[in-house]
Design brief:
This protein has 311 residues and is α/β, with parallel strands linked by helices. Helices cover 39% and strands 16% of the residues. The protein has two domains: 134 residues, Rossmann fold; 118 residues, Alpha-Beta Complex (UDP-galactose 4-epimerase, domain 1), CATH 3.90.25.10. The radius of gyration is 20 Å and the shape is globular.
């Protein structure tokens, strides 16, 4: 099928999965600033603002024909769809199957290119289902035959992100903050706007590419926690505990907050170094600068992941 052609006098049309979510919203904004029209495929179409300029379609994995129609006329699909943890009958394996359906629908619709947001260190032999299924999803994309870019971030920061905000929220309220082990494992984040800019740039590329989406700073987790504490004026004591204690502690806090604060696999993968890379930076925004700039609002309100996605 030939690539979609925009009608004369109209801007090219791109699609973003989850354009009202965290990274998807940033990507949609950057696309609009680049003069492109934006369509979203979202699991929560009723949450769309009434005055949004984004063309809203449901992300319905059960109906591939409907997905294909929703992608009609789209030049580039920017895919942010994934699940952070299993819930109900949707686990990481199901997320791979859903992604495969989406990629095939994009091919059927004649989408010219797919920009897919993955994770650092995907590995089909990983002990962690998240990383195994991310590798399987990347393979599903390669198999479908549409030219692609795979972007691999570790964590995102900036704006209404969850991870750094909730660390700050805990540091503002608890007398003690527990760090597993010696905290020497590194975290290499990228600003959400740098990721969005990468997506827009990669949407114009030809051929296939795989890039780590990472910023210039690689603090240890211990350093990161202490930097957040300093930024928000926390007096909490940063206490090192055996790593085996972190999952039950996180589960206990999560139960109180009615949320999934940190899964055991997320902690163990980070402690194994999977949130770090040694390659060149593809983002430019400094985490340290962002912490100082956002300190007045960081951690003022808890960001509940389950509320955002399931309630």
């Amino acid at each position: 099928m030939s690539p979609p052609v925009s009608p004369p006098g109209t801007a090219p049309l791109d699609a973003v999965t989850g354009a009202f979510s965290y990274s998807g919203h940033a990507i949609a904004q950057h696309l609009q600033h680049a003069g492109r029209r934006v369509r979203t495929l979202t699991g929560h179409p009723r949450r769309a603002p009434a005055d949004t300029p984004v063309d809203v379609h449901p992300l319905d994995f059960a109906d591939r024909a409907r997905l294909t129609r929703s992608l009609d006329g789209v030049s580039t699909l920017h895919n942010t769809y994934w699940v952070r943890f299993g819930r109900g009958d949707v686990d990481h394996g199901a997320a791979t199957a859903h992604s495969r359906t989406l990629f095939r629908a994009a091919a059927d619709a004649g989408v010219r290119r797919i920009v897919h947001v993955s994770i650092t260190h995907p590995d089909p032999d990983s002990p962690y289902p998240y990383f195994r299924e991310k590798a399987a999803t990347e393979q599903a994309l390669a198999d479908v035959g549409v030219p692609y870019t795979i972007l691999r971030p570790a964590i995102l920061f900036g704006g209404p992100g969850v991870l750094l905000n909730n660390i700050a929220w805990l540091l503002r309220r608890l007398p003690v903050f527990a760090v597993g082990g010696d905290g020497s494992y590194r975290v290499r984040g990228i600003h959400v706007d740098d990721l969005a800019a990468l997506c827009v740039a990669e949407g114009r590329r030809s051929g296939n590419a795989v890039l780590d989406a990472v910023g210039p700073e690689r603090p240890t987790f211990d350093t990161l926690v202490r930097a957040i504490a300093d930024a928000v004026g926390s007096r909490a004591r940063v206490l090192h505990v055996p790593g085996a204690l972190i999952p039950p502690l996180a589960n206990g806090l999560g139960a109180l907050l009615r949320d999934r604060l940190l899964t055991a696999d997320e902690y163990r993968a980070m402690a194994d170094g999977l949130a770090d890379t040694e390659g060149p930076a593809t983002g430019t925004t400094l985490l340290s600068t962002t912490l100082r700039a956002e300190a007045p609002r960081l951690g003022r309100r808890y960001a509940n992941e389950l509320t955002r996605h399931y309630r």
